[in-house]
Amino acid sequence: MSTERSPAFEPAGTANRIVIYFGVFMLVGLFALAWIGREPPVSANGEDLPILDLQPLVAADPVNNEMLTGKITVLHFWGTWCPPCIKEFPEFVELHKEFRDNRDVAFISVSCTSGAELDLETLKRNTQAFLQEQGATIPTYADGTAKTRTRLLMLLGGSFGLPTTLVVDRDGVIVHTMAGYYPGEMSALSDKLHDLVGS
């Protein structure tokens, strides 16, 4: 019979907990540093709207910059696959309903994938299904070559995410930029539109 004893060791559960707590602490610290050091969101306000290169996708007619002259334009980029866009979309639908009969206001809704729209038929099917599910009848476009988003990317300091909403005045100048989804921001946008229509 052997008299050798197994080496003593600390229970694995305790050691694992220490490692996990340390890892969580480090991650929280890194996120805090990233948040503190991040640059403020870039706005395109005051810039001319770049040349649009959009293709009608659902219930939409061809559009270009000249056709929007003299109108206040709401340009909304979103994706059926994008969780913040899905949360925001009902608020956008309500905004559209509020102004759709106003001839001074144009809505351009752009359904996007994560890059160039190489398969417009699939994008169209997905967009139609999403709009039907939302009960929305908003003229919707595709940025098939991603040229419009690329031009806006340059104005926004190299950052363009979804959803992004721009308001353009009657002279083609961007006067309001919304990047990302924040609950209630569409209500503030409604006030902005009323101010622009009345001016």
Write the layout of secondary structure elements.
Layout: H1 12-37, E1 55-58, H2 65-68, E2 72-78, H3 83-99, E3 105-111, H4 120-134, E4 140-142, H5 147-155, E5 164-168, E6 174-179, H6 185-198
Parallel strand pairs: 2-3, 3-4
Antiparallel strand pairs: 1-4, 2-5, 5-6
Helix pairs in contact: 3-6
What would the keywords be for this entry?
Glutaredoxin, single chain, 2 domains, alpha/beta, 16% strand, 199 residues, 6-stranded mixed sheet, 6 helices
So how many helices?
6
Low-confidence stretches: 4-11, 19-40
Helix and strand content put the structural class at alpha/beta
Largest sheet: spatial strand order: 1-4-3-2-5-6
Task: Characterise the protein shown here.
The protein is of the alpha/beta class and 199 residues long. The protein has two domains: 30 residues; 144 residues, Glutaredoxin. Helices cover 43% and strands 16% of the residues. It has a six-stranded mixed beta sheet with strand order 1-4-3-2-5-6, covered by helices on one side. Helix 3 packs parallel to helix 6. The longest helix is centred in the first third of the chain and has 26 residues. It is globular, with a radius of gyration of 24 Å. The chain starts with 11 loop residues before the first helix and ends with a helix.
Short description:
By secondary structure, this protein is an alpha/beta fold. It has 6 helices and 6 strands, in the order H-E-H-E-H-E-H-E-H-E-E-H. The chain has helices at 12-37, 65-68, 83-99, 120-134, 147-155, 185-198, and strands at 55-58, 72-78, 105-111, 140-142, 164-168, 174-179.
